[in-house]
Design a protein that fits this description.
about 15% helix; five-stranded antiparallel β-sheet; 8 strands; about 100 residues
Length: about 100
């Protein structure tokens, strides 16, 4: 079955083979879409590709943490999302 999820309800997307997992309201849904295509279609002011495998919604971010493994975003659902070194400066600027 097909389900429409409003942008504001989406916490993040994670690449998963030829699919993307959509995390929303504690649920995980799959869409047959690459992260690259999703990144192009999503509003840039609200969503940012923070890692090759992750796109995050700004309103879902609760904290930016520096760990010994690198930067991570903590989301409202408690999920920790890695931030690539390559995207670290863009993430910091986006969150300001």
């Amino acid at each position: 079955t097909e389900e429409i999820v409003p942008y504001g309800a989406i916490d993040c997307f994670e690449a998963e083979d030829v699919y993307a997992a959509v995390f929303t309201g504690g649920r995980r849904l799959l869409v047959r879409q690459s992260l690259s295509l999703l990144a192009e279609a999503l509003p840039a002011a609200d969503f940012l590709r923070v890692h090759r495998s992750w796109i995050v919604h700004r309103t879902a971010v609760r904290a930016l943490r520096q760990t010994r493994d690198g930067l991570q975003l903590q989301l409202r659902d408690g999920r920790l999302v890695p931030v690539s070194r390559r995207n670290a400066a863009a993430v910091r600027a986006w969150l300001r």
